[in-house]
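I'm stuck. Please check this protein.
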Amino acid sequence: MPDAESHDGRPGRTPLSFAAIADAAIRLADHGGMHAVSMRKVAAELGSGTMSLYRYVANKEQLYALMCDTVLAAEPAPARSGDWRADLRALAESERAVYRRHPWMLDSISPLGPGGIARVENSLALLAPTGLAMDDIVGVLGMVSSTVHAAIRHEMSVADLHRSTGMDVHEWHAAHSGDIKGLQGGEFPMVARMIAETGRVDHDAAFHRSLAIVLDGVAALIARTGAG
């Protein structure tokens, strides 16, 4: 195990440490996604030799795990108020903020480190006052997390659409609705209604609406099981 920091004495180089390596890799991923992260590129970001990094992380998998845990450890855990609905809402907002800043984490699967474990512990504890069984608690947290993931992916797809076409979703639907056979003839009335009645995307409103639906389902689960 290397010391917390090392330096070869040459100017212009960042002293190596787990924190410095993680921060450099996170900067690369935030700018260019996970495909922009490699041991060579991280070393270049730090002004170090590639082989020096292997004293800290043995491979890219360990590097990815270090990146994810660094992000999670830096995100303050939502305070537990005892109001499960408010606490789950705060947890979802916290996760959404993390993925907005670091969208590459959506596709990162790595072993939990201290930061991740602490966050899981806090998340589980948020639902302890409900009296739900642990399987149900895990299921609820998974559903909340899936809602966050879906919202972030939708934001990303809308942003990609705008970059490639210059249009938002509403404008794109309006421009291409005439190309869909049967849409104008009444064959797909619900799709036509969706295009007519939905306005421009409000990501915050859409996310909060989806989350409210999930939380209503959790309330029904608690009532049905007699928990809480």
User: Anything to note?
Assistant: The chain has two domains: 18-72, 78-225.
